[in-house]
């Protein structure tokens, strides 16, 4: 298991998609906003963290796992003593480590450029949120990779999932003033609960932070089950 984690970490650190979507693009956006002195809401700045995690952990992982499915990697896994649970755990852990590291860098850049004035406790509270969010979106990527029959369909599927999650959250909207159906969607939207957790961490509101963490952990467990079920055809 540790060999899989080590190999995956080494491979992912050389991933061009990681460098562009999760590092260069968010940093360029942040420096651009700062340079042009644009008035950007805190929710939008915090949303950059969630989108960076989603682009890497979900979309990049979905295409990687889809490629492995097509090559029969998981068929070969059945005849080895290495269980699917261990494989899922190893890949999820490696993606989570990288995504959390990138997100912490982005958070520190945001704090420096836009003067978040975060307390030490706030930074500590951010870490579990980033960890759970990264693991959650990685597992979602596993599940999405089982749906399409080609890469074009996979691209459409990830976009159809991503757009409602982002648009029905407080990244760009004031949820309190949004239509009722958007408010209902926000209650089951992991992006929105990450946003609420981020705000609670900034304000060191421990009770609301704990509630956000609890709901995100429940979502994580549900996505773990869905990701495992998505491989049922490989075990027949």
UniProtKB/TrEMBL annotation:
What is the source species?
Answer: Halalkalibacter hemicellulosilyticusJCM 9152
Q: Which GO terms describe its cellular component?
A: plasma membrane
* Membrane topology, record value: Multi-pass membrane protein
Localization, per the record, is: Cell membrane; Membrane
- Kindly list the GO molecular function terms attached to this UniProt entry: ABC-type transporter activity
Tell me which InterPro entries the record gives: ABC-2_transporter (IPR052902), ABC2_TM (IPR013525), ABC2_TM_bact-type (IPR047817)
Keyword Membrane carried by entry: yes
What are the alphabetically sorted keywords of the record? Cell membrane, Membrane, Transmembrane, Transmembrane helix, Transport
> Which PANTHER family does the entry mention?
DOXORUBICIN RESISTANCE ABC TRANSPORTER PERMEASE PROTEIN DRRC-RELATED (PTHR43027:SF1)
Q: Which family does it belong to?
A: Belongs to the ABC-2 integral membrane protein family.
Q: What is its main location?
A: membrane
Please indicate which superkingdom the organism of origin belongs to: Bacteria
The record lists the membrane-crossing segments as 16-36, 48-66, 87-109, 121-144, 156-176, 206-227
Per its record, how is this protein called by name?
Transport permease protein
Q: Where is the ABC transmembrane type-2 domain?
A: 7-234
Q: Does the keyword Membrane apply?
A: yes
């Amino acid at each position: 298991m540790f060999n899989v984690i080590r190999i995956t970490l080494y491979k992912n650190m050389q991933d061009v998609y990681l460098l562009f979507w999760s590092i260069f693009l968010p940093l360029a956006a942040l420096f651009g906003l700062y340079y042009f002195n644009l008035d950007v809401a805190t929710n939008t700045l915090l949303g950059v963290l969630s989108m960076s995690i989603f682009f890497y952990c979900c979309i990049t992982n979905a295409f990687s796992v889809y490629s492995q499915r097509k090559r029969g990697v998981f068929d070969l896994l059945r005849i080895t003593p290495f269980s699917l649970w261990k494989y899922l755990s190893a890949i999820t852990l490696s993606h989570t480590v990288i995504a959390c590291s990138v997100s912490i860098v982005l958070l520190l850049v945001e704090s420096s450029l836009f003067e978040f004035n975060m307390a030490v406790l706030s930074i500590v509270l951010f870490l579990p949120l980033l960890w759970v969010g990264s693991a959650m979106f990685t597992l979602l990527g596993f599940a999405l990779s089982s749906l399409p029959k080609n890469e074009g369909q996979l691209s459409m599927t990830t976009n159809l999932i991503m757009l409602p999650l982002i648009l029905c959250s407080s990244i760009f909207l004031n949820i309190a003033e949004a239509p009722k159906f958007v408010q209902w969607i926000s209650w089951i939207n992991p992006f929105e609960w990450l946003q609420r957790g981020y705000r609670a961490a900034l304000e060191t509101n421990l009770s609301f932070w704990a509630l956000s963490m609890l709901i995100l952990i429940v979502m994580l467990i549900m996505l773990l089950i869905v990701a495992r079920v998505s491989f049922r055809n490989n075990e027949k």
